[in-house]
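fwd from M.: "can u put these together and see what the complex looks like"

so here's what she sent:
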Amino acid sequence: MADPILELDKVTVRRGMGVVLQDFSLQIKSGECVILHGKNGAGKSTIIETAARLLPMESGAVAHHGSLVCDGQGRRLNPEKSFGLTLQSNCLVASQTVEQHLTNVMDLCAKSIDLKPILSAFKIANRRNDKIAHLSGGQQRKVAVIAGLIPAMVEQQPRLVVLDEPDSGLDDAAITVLVQTIHELRNIGHCFMIATHDSRLFECGTSLNDLHSEKTQEVSNDARWVVESESKSLKLLKTKIGWKYNSSTLVSVQRNWLAALLVMGGLLSIVDPLTLSDETVILMGFTLAPAFTLGLVGDAVFKILNEQRSIDWWRAQYNQVPNSYVESFISGLILTTISSQIFIQSVDYRIIIIGGLISLFTTACVRFLQLSTIRLTRSNAVFIRLLTPILILPWGIIVDYCAKL
Amino acid sequence: MRVKSGDMLLIAGFSGLMLTLYLAFNWAPSVNINAFQSPEAQRIFYWHVPAAWAAFIAFAVLFIGSALWFFKRSPLGWKLHVAGSEAGLACGLMAVWSGCVWGAAEWGTPWDWQDYRLNTFGLLTLLALFLVLGRQSQPDGVESRDTFSTFGLYGFVLVPITYIATRIWVIRHPGPVIAGDDDSSISGDMAIVLMIGALSFTLLIIGHIMTSVEITKFEQRIDRLQKELDGE
């Protein structure tokens, strides 16, 4: 008997003040497709998000390919194999192109395939190089669904695919293509868990589960997906993808750089550095202030990923989401070089490196604080920045140290 | 109207605070004028030290409540978390504000960003502010309770650091007056006023916590009844 690809073992999940799932168990094996079709509020999305490691459990455990990925003890381990995921939100970054987004997903799987036939089937091949922001709602949904299917499309070995209402916003033709694609992928051994109210997707299911009872059914479609993929490197994935997000959106320029330059300009407008030549601590503080400000604004990639719950898509795949640490370090170096010239009229490589490290460390701390509140219903509304003054003391100590160099 | 024990403690604590203020300004002896830049401003210490003491009690309650909710899902734990963060914010702000007033008079600056005691205590107060404001920004649920309890647990790490800060890194803030070494002893009359202040703040904080627990209980009951009306 084959081991299950996905196993939910006596899972209990609370949302708000209520218990949504109580001791819920489910197993999905290679070649199976489970359709979750309960009424609104029954807990379908909760099962999907629990299987994707997005919701903490009160008790129970979730395993992918026989390995624990999360449990009621708070353990959260990276899945050994990537899995397909489409949430109710599209989890897209609007300033990326369709191809850039899907390439990121392929990078995550360490594989690549020719996207053209897939995009043609879903009738969005002509929008391949368009920014996602320029697509209609239905077209964006198609991209999100394709992104969810890619981990199975690029792999011969069985993979898990979890889709939450993939039909939402799709036209009839796209749903027909989706149903056929699911048949083909399931027939080569991939397994699916799909939450839907659309009866057209029911024909894909080897079992229909209304969260209280399960009914198995025969599936007659024998078509098989042909995998033609190439292997890619997975090294420094999160940093590489963070770099791509940053370079395509320039968000770090409009947020972090702007704030840092404003601070530099503001300081220059109130003091003439030449009149403070004896005040080395103050001048060093001015020199390192832009790098510190750049970090305090926070991780630019984190800001991008907050669009359409992209961050949740990444968190499901990896415990560490893409970051902009490299940009932060480089920006800190550049800004400190400029501010050194302005405030201390010299360039000391030690101070420049310290400036880069200040930016990097501050960015990492602010990002950690923001990630700590990601589970909240309104994580953007929480006053997490109130805790950033914790960074002023170490910054002050470093300024003192640098002034003595 | 039935007066509850929490209300009684609040009244007793508040009366004690008024007495402390009166004694501090009219009865407590002056300090040696050569030992301080601004000797008269030193009288604020009868308010500042008890407020800081009460804040530490509140932070301890916050920690216990956070731990009880996080590990045991105890409803009482969450009520203590709420009460501890509110009381910690109130007393923390009183200690920080009075410290700033004294610092401005004695040091010439209300705040020193490089003093460990000031910064760690200020951060504890900011943590309490974050917990109070953050909680109000979120719907009540296991997600928000878990998140804020985690901050309550981690934040408590600052309490011992704050306490020992003046023993290890004396920068600006004076050394400890409670449970300090021989050099930290104060004269008898000063100690009496300080003790009355500490006792009053302790009564006030216990009264506040009891009242806050009661209010949270009512809020949860209203929320439950609201959901019943919504048919959930």
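replying to her w this: The mean pLDDT of chain B is 84.
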